[in-house]
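pasting succinate dehydrogenase for the record, 665 residues
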Amino acid sequence: MALDSKIPKGPLSEKWTNHKNNINLVNPANKRNIDVIVVGTGLAGGSAAATLAELGYNVKAFCFQDSPRRAHSIAAQGGINAAKNYQGDGDSTYRLFYDTVKGGDYRSREANVYRLAEVSANIIDQCVAQGVPFAREYGGLLDNRSFGGVLVSRTFYAAGQTGQQLLLGAYSAMNRQIGRGKIKMYNRHEMLDVVMVDGKARGIIARDLVSGKIERHSAHAVVLGTGGYGNVFFLSTNAMGSNVTAAWKAHKRGAYFANPCYTQIHPTCIPVSGEHQSKLTLMSESLRNDGRIWVPKKKEDAEAIREGKLKPTELAEDDRDYYLERRYPAFGNLVPRDVASRAAKERCDAGYGVNKTGEAVYLDFASAFMRYGKEQAHVKGLDENDDALVKKLGQEVVRKKYGNLFQMYEKIVDQNPYETPMMIYPAVHYTMGGLWVDYNLQTTIPGLYCIGEANFSDHGANRLGASALMQGLADGYFVLPYTIGDYLSNDIRTGEIPTDTKEFDDAQKRVEDNINHLINNNGKHSVDHFHKRLGKIMWNKCGMARNAEDLKSAITEISQLREEFWKDVLVPGTADEFNEELAKAGRVADFLELGELFAKDALQREESAGGHFREEYQTEEGEAMRRKEFQYVSAWEYKGEPKDAVLHKEDLQYENIEVKERSYK
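structre below
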């Protein structure tokens, strides 16, 4: 199958407008006769389901959580990008487009990213109309802050809970349609296969996670908005339930999987504390606006801190290495995530780490307290030279901006971040890879669409902070509702899709055979036993740095681990009941296949780009070395075992941006 991205012709700034003017539409009366399945109800799926139902389609929405409000989108704390330029600091649609492509290390599709920047301003208006309580400045305009990889303030936020507030907006829009009967909501249901009829996606097989019942659901089109696959590493900032199953099942039915090796390592995560952990907690990137990142200049000071003989607050300013400010003076602490993560790893590997494991750096707000405090003292006519007063006033300002984040840190680490610097270390966060989609967000399976983090389309090799929420809502509110109509216009006379057909029989049998094998296996080891082992292989050999030797051994080790899993996994309970261990087993089985393809993709990409850092391809200064011959999307076709997957390439053309060495200095 040839990859056709279906990018419209014409100037970049006119592509989306011209495309909307020329695609086929479905009239309101015909929309009432068309069914659409939406899997996943986070920001992408929730906004898509609400908008499609508002347009008149009959929507069936599925989520494995007990409510759409529990989608992992709530964890996106820091903000959402949009080029409204309220700050008057030089932002524009083009600059947001440019920053996003550069931040992704020139490995994303120009047309999709420009469209994202173009509709970004509409998202903010939509969310304000829904009542999302964005922060406002004194004059009444929405406030903005800056995030990594940009020189302007374009990130809109609602304290440290932006994702949650945006999700509640989408959820309220969904609820309106549920009340009207236009959305039929299936909570606690997990999609376990895509059903193909005459080469088109015409439904799904889902399992009711409460009763264990296997169900058939048909539709004229299927939309996946199921998030990313960061939990392939076991330890990640993702919710425990986040998984790749829906996307992977679609991949096995014929949807190409693109750029699986592109994983984002987030620099501001609470460090790993021991083997007991099952997930990691992210501290919002917004903290890098005011927090300064440092390690001791001298190894003996770092050792003393690790041994508890020296407190960080006792270290003189001259003995601190603010390494991001030193290495990247133009962007300082607000370099992109991949750059900040590698810099932290380099310092810790060199022996300057500050927690007991040696894998942590400091995020320090002391100077922010004094800066804000002096301003407040000046405003209030108080003594600007009273350091204790100034610090207290400054802490109040920071508490208003980031209070819930500081509170969360103290609860987890049992240290007061107002009195001692936070400790942070990079961790797996977001995945830029996902199902390959064309300009219309359709996969290589006709009638199967993929939106948000589950697709590959907008972020290249590294996502800039606050762009995840932007993409999810752009796809769901403003892109998919247009483009899916072009496909569905051919289905106005199709009628309801029956589920009592051979295609549904075969798909259900595949699902039941898989479940029966897991339940009746009677092995010796738990699901987590295998998941943790997979995670260690992934982190050690496919994590922050990669090399050919490690990747080759990872491929072999994951293949052997998968074979062992199917022979020796133990799943207690039965299939016809609420059985979270069974659900987890199915998800880990898919991770064990994805992990091998991930390593295979990383091995063939002989360059460093964004979050994919090959040790063999770096500059003398330790920065990523991109190679022009890898300026393509790697889209993998399923052929059985991951080792047999076939690579297809979508060449990336840059006509509106000069591809040059990526520098934040």
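The CA atoms of residues 546 and 652 lie 24 Å apart.
The radius of gyration is 25 Å.
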